[in-house]
């Protein structure tokens, strides 16, 4: 019912060669490319903004799964829609108006996705679960790639899947942070179906083979 989607994170790619990196990701058969937007305020790190995403769009037909780690992300809904983002994910911790911001994303023609940090309880999502196309459960604290998976987040994923079933909602469950061939299966068993992976995938020379190890781990 919820097909597996692999979302290589371009945060771990070569920033000077986005066009060829996007091509490499496309060749793996990955369903999405995960694009991390960081403003240096919501998280300490700075990455890039909507103009860079618009340039990427010219080089790729992949589904752009944009994860905004940005204060007051509602300010950027139109910019990301125009840049060609397909999914816009925003943090409940980053705005006083999460409900309105998600409505704005949908009205702009994108899929609306909401995310919580490891320290934020699942309850913060309950009022918007009927609105969203995707929920992202962070499995590391956002800001940097290459951090260790936080196993306690699996309970959150499982509880979310249970609520979805009980209420008859329909949305994908995505996990982001520390996903590799040793953690992906447990995340899937808890109920996730969209898997972001950065450092694990890009540390390998052969991206196609490395993505295949994730799919194989799911089938083990
Ligand atoms: C972290 C980002 C992630 C990051 C994951 O703040 O949201 O998308 O790219 O990187 P890995 O897979 O290395 O944990
Ligand atoms: Zn991310």
In short:
The protein has eight helices and eight strands.
What's the SSE blueprint?
Elements: E1 5-8, H1 18-27, E2 32-38, H2 50-57, E3 63-69, H3 77-83, E4 87-91, H4 98-107, E5 111-116, E6 134-138, H5 153-167, E7 172-176, H6 184-190, E8 194-197, H7 199-202, H8 207-219
Parallel strand pairs: 1-8, 2-3, 3-4, 4-5, 5-6, 6-7, 7-8
Helix pairs in contact: 2-3, 5-6
The structure holds D-xylitol-5-phosphate (DX5) and zinc ion.
Zinc ion (ZN) binds next to strand 2.
The total strand number stands at 8
CATH C-level = Alpha Beta
Going across the biggest sheet, name each strand in turn.
1-8-7-6-5-4-3-2
The name of the CATH topology is TIM Barrel
Strand residue content: 15-25%
Number of domains: 1
Bound molecules: D-xylitol-5-phosphate, zinc ion
Question: Which homologous superfamily in CATH is the superfamily?
Answer: Aldolase class I
Order of helices and strands: EHEHEHEHEEHEHEHH
Q: Any guess at the CATH architecture? A: Alpha-Beta Barrel
Basic shape: globular
Mean of all residue-level pLDDT scores? 98
Main beta sheet = 8 strands, parallel
Low-confidence stretches: none
Provide the gyration radius in Å.
16 Å
Q: What is the CA-CA span between the terminal residues?
A: 20 Å
Helix content percent band: 25-40%
Would you tell me the structural class of the helices and strands? Answer: alpha/beta
Number of continuous helical runs: 8
